[in-house]
């Protein structure tokens, strides 16, 4: 029938996510999970990204240990601007499945997630500060420029 899209007969949807090769796109559709991710997300990136992970751990308004984080004290931007987060763009290329050299899409997805959180927080921290000091003043303007140490890895992940 014209206008009806059909699935090619050569295309098969895997049933069990465990049958997928390591490093597969974590958002492949499977019969078991449908559109949901095939595996739990990577919680922490490899050691080369410890500076990023440490910032993420310290970033919340209220950290897991109950103390005030970088966003509560409005210190995220100054910390980033001081150089505490190195430009790890080249390290994105090292996010590969061990022994294969294949891109580890679960790790790329985790890096994109982590850099997205830092990017949003960095850009919007001034808005949060204005609002926190006096909600009647609204949100004000955020930062206008995203530093290369955040933008570079974010763009590289997005391209992959």
Structure described in brief:
This protein has helices at 50-58, 70-73, 76-81, 105-133, 148-159. It is mainly α and 160 residues long.
Tell me what you see in this structure:
The chain is mostly helical and 160 residues long. The protein has 2 domains: 1-40, no CATH class; 41-159, no CATH class. Helix content is 38%, strand content 0%. The protein contains 5 helices and no strands. Helix 1 runs parallel beside helix 4 (105-133) and helix 4 (105-133) packs across helix 5 (148-159). 21% of the residues are buried. Residues 5-9 have low confidence and may be disordered.
Defining traits:
mainly alpha, 2 domains, metal-binding, 160 residues, iron, dioxygenase, elongated, indoleamine 2,3-dioxygenase activity, Indoleamine 2,3-dioxygenase
